[in-house]
Specification:
Blueprint: E1 8-12, H1 14-21, H2 30-39, E2 44-47, H3 58-69, E3 75-80, H4 93-100, E4 104-107, H5 123-139, E5 143-148, H6 152-160, E6 165-169, H7 171-177, H8 182-201, E7 204-208, H9 216-219, E8 225-230, H10 232-241, H11 243-255
Helix pairs in contact: 2-3, 6-8, 7-8, 10-11
Length: 256
């Protein structure tokens, strides 16, 4: 089976921002840590701004966009709920995206009070509402990815409404990787089948959620995996390893 020779590593900076927000001031500095990740070999940076600003704040989005613009070949990915409206000094998710025009916008079916992303879109319900939004972002030069479960019918719908890529939600894969029983093997086959189908219909493939140093290499067996977005596990590993060695360890797996 054909696989990519390289999978891009996009480092999610949410947890760095979460630590910063636990105290007054700007320590740790999210932009400085983003630059450290780039210099350590990351192919891009990801943020997930939410209306409650529990981690990434609007000024982070603008400042990180400016940072990335200074590095050739480095991508900025903004992910989040496309229907998150303005709240206080949060200008709204789509307003942020349109202001900075990132390389990629990953739309995620989150509610405002959701702890973390835990499911993909049901495009039988959400598809027609998303279609014009996808087109509007593409008109601004933004590549659009949809957060999806490994469901072939849903992936076909993502292609039909114009998405450039999908990001497979890998939470269930990571959870069951710890117990590689028949259920896990069937689950992984669903991810492989989803990847094969995405390749066949011409939609790009990303993945993310709970991928770590233990389970990432195995997941890279899915064909044509273009990008993984990793934040929580990488930040935890950075506590023990240091940020630069942690980024390099993930990058090594992505390049193998």
């Amino acid at each position: 089976m054909k696989t990519t020779s390289k999978t891009a590593l996009s480092v999610n900076l949410n947890k760095i921002a979460l630590i910063r927000n636990s105290r007054a001031g700007n320590y740790p500095n999210v932009v400085a840590h983003g630059e450290t990740c780039i210099k350590a070999g990351a192919d891009g940076l990801t943020v997930h701004p939410r209306p409650d600003q529990r981690h990434i704040r609007p000024h982070d989005v603008y400042e990180l966009s400016e940072l990335v613009s200074g590095y050739s070949g480095i991508e900025f990915n903004i992910e989040g709920n496309p229907y998150a409206d303005s709240l206080g000094d949060f200008p709204g998710f789509i307003k942020l995206v349109k202001d900075v025009r990132p390389h990629q916008c990953t739309l995620v079916p989150d509610s405002n009070d959701q702890l973390t992303s835990d499911h993909g879109f049901d495009l039988k319900i959400a598809g027609e509402k998303l279609r014009p939004l996808i087109s509007d972002l593409q008109d601004l030069g933004v590549r659009v990815s949809l957060f999806m479960d490994p469901n072939i019918e849903q992936i076909s719908l993502a292609k039909a409404i114009g998405a450039d890529r999908i990001e497979l939600y890998t939470g269930p894969y990571a959870e069951h990787f710890k117990q590689p029983d028949d259920y896990f093997h069937n689950l992984f086959e669903a991810y492989r089948s989803a990847a094969i189908h995405a390749q066949a219909i011409g939609i790009g493939l990303n993945a993310g959620h709970d991928l770590n140093l233990d389970n990432l290499a195995h997941f890279r067996q899915v064909p044509e995996l273009l990008e993984v977005s990793i934040g929580h596990a990488l930040t935890v590993d950075a506590i023990a390893m240091g940020l630069v060695p942690a980024v390099q360890a993930y990058k090594k797996i992505c390049d193998e």
